[in-house]
Write a structure and sequence with these properties.
With 452 residues, the protein is mostly helical. The chain has one domain. It is built from 13 helices and no strands. It is globular, with a radius of gyration of 22 Å. The two termini are 29 Å apart. The relative contact order is 0.13.
Length: 452
């Protein structure tokens, strides 16, 4: 236990700015949801639909960029600064290409949104908002690359403040562009999209300026930014990042399919889903931030050949996650109606949202446990089997189970969220079992090394 407590200090020191940074980004989504909700339920439903499409692509990019953290952490642990610099240079070029490619794909999807059979008002309002979200990927993906690099180099705080400033800017722009304040035109839903694009572009410019001017990172910057891509570094990025992108896409894709199914129950159900998903995503940022710190610290431990510290790092993080998610679970059970009223004054929407938030409370602890286990496995570079386990939990089990409750047993939107809760619980159990297996293998390898 003393070793767990000691390692928890190191994990929290790294996780705190990552957690708060992630929460600040979710506050951006929360602010959008609250402010769009004040325009109307129809607009909130359209925003929910557009975000479902957008985030499915965005999380794939985020998953790929996790490799930047993991690979940089290995090189940082081994004190190979110029190798880390090459990871950064190659990753930035890949990130720019990914951001541009995904933006073009999303723009091409705009005329095809009707095929998802959402309410007519949703398919009319969503495309223009989706356009601005799509082009915001061009600055957002490179900015996340720099953020991941700085965190892996144990320099997270300046990046955190830049990200937080971006949230404040986005809220201010929402205020003037959504509602037409201070002499600006009232753009409503489109205004939220424009605000997102502008704030993400400014964040990229500021964060890159910090990167190039920081004395603490100077030894880890490329000597030449513009040169041929390093095949080895690009291959490693995709080798580690692609399965992680698959994991996140599988997990988030299940929520996306759920949203499309919920859309068949009308605008109110879709808007309630957006409220529940926004709250879930916000809370999930806490265990996710801890998990990213675990990935980085495990990478440092393996890179510096101190594998014995992996056990206390990982299980200490599980304890922290349990305490945090347990607190939020109790809070949602007690205060879900009040939380729902913070998004809308529509009584039907508030009632349905509150019931969904109580279901969210039931799976938060499992959600936190699977986030830590998945991140720890990623730090151990075990990504293929966890991807299969996640696919089984969400797509083979959760979605059919939820559809049964929703359509056959007439539970509606609540039934689909019950399915998600069951899938998250199963995923947490399977991933934790896999983690225990891998840690036992790591102990065996360490023992063999000592004997030699």
């Amino acid at each position: 236990m003393p070793s767990v407590l000691r390692e928890n200090k190191g994990t929290l020191a790294l996780a705190l700015p990552i957690m708060v940074g992630h929460v600040s980004q979710m506050l951006l989504g929360l602010a959008d949801t609250v402010m769009i909700g004040r325009v109307g339920t129809m607009e909130l439903a359209a925003a929910a639909f557009a975000n479902v499409i957008f985030n499915t692509f965005f999380v794939a990019a985020i998953g790929l960029l996790v490799a930047v953290s993991v690979n940089t952490a290995y090189e940082h642990g081994a004190k190979r600064d110029q190798e880390a610099a090459e990871i950064l240079r190659n990753s930035l070029f890949i990130a720019l290409f990914i951001g541009l490619s995904l933006a073009l794909i999303l723009c091409a999807l705009k005329p095809l949104l009707y095929i998802f059979k959402q309410p007519e008002s949703v398919t009319i309002l969503a495309p223009k908002y989706l356009f601005w979200l799509a082009i915001s990927l061009i600055p957002a993906v490179p900015a996340l690359t720099v953020k991941s690099f700085c965190e892996a180099k144990n320099q997270p705080w300046v990046v955190f403040w830049v990200m937080l400033g971006g949230v404040a800017l986005n809220i201010a722009l929402n205020y003037v562009l959504i509602f037409g304040n201070l002499g600006f035109p009232r753009l409503e839903l489109v205004g939220a999209g424009v605000a997102t694009f502008i704030s993400r572009m400014i964040v990229l410019l500021v964060i890159f300026y910090y990167l190039t001017q920081s004395k603490k990172l100077a030894s880890s910057l490329p000597k030449k930014w513009i040169s041929r891509l390093n095949k080895e570094k690009v291959t490693s990025l995709f080798k580690v990042g692609s399965p992680t992108a698959g994991q996140l896409t599988i997990a988030f894709g299940s929520f996306s399919i759920t949203a499309l199914l919920i859309g068949q129950f009308g605008n109110t159900a879709l808007a309630a889903h957006q409220i529940a998903l926004t709250c879930t995503a916000l809370i999930f940022m806490f265990p996710l931030g801890i998990g990213m710190a675990v990935s980085i610290r495990v990478g440092h431990s393996i890179g510096s050949e101190e594998a014995k510290t992996c056990h206390p790092i990982i299980w200490g993080a599980q304890i922290i996650s349990f305490l945090i998610t347990g607190f939020f679970a109790i809070s949602l059970i007690l205060f879900s109606p009040a939380a729902a009223r913070g998004f809308s004054t529509d009584p039907n929407l508030v009632e349905l949202s509150a019931s969904l938030l109580k279901i969210v409370a039931l799976f938060l602890i499992f959600d936190g446990a699977q986030a830590i286990s998945m991140s720890a496995l990623r730090g151990l570079r075990d990504v293929i089997v966890p991807t299969v386990l996640i696919f089984f939990s969400y797509w083979v089990f959760a979605i059919p189970f939820g559809a049964l409750f929703a359509f056959k047993l007439d539970f509606g939107a609540r039934g689909l969220w019950v399915g998600l809760a069951a899938g998250l619980a199963l995923g947490a159990l399977l991933l934790t079992a896999r983690l225990i297996q891998q840690l036992r293998k790591l102990v065996g390898l360490a023992s063999e090394s000592i004997q030699k």
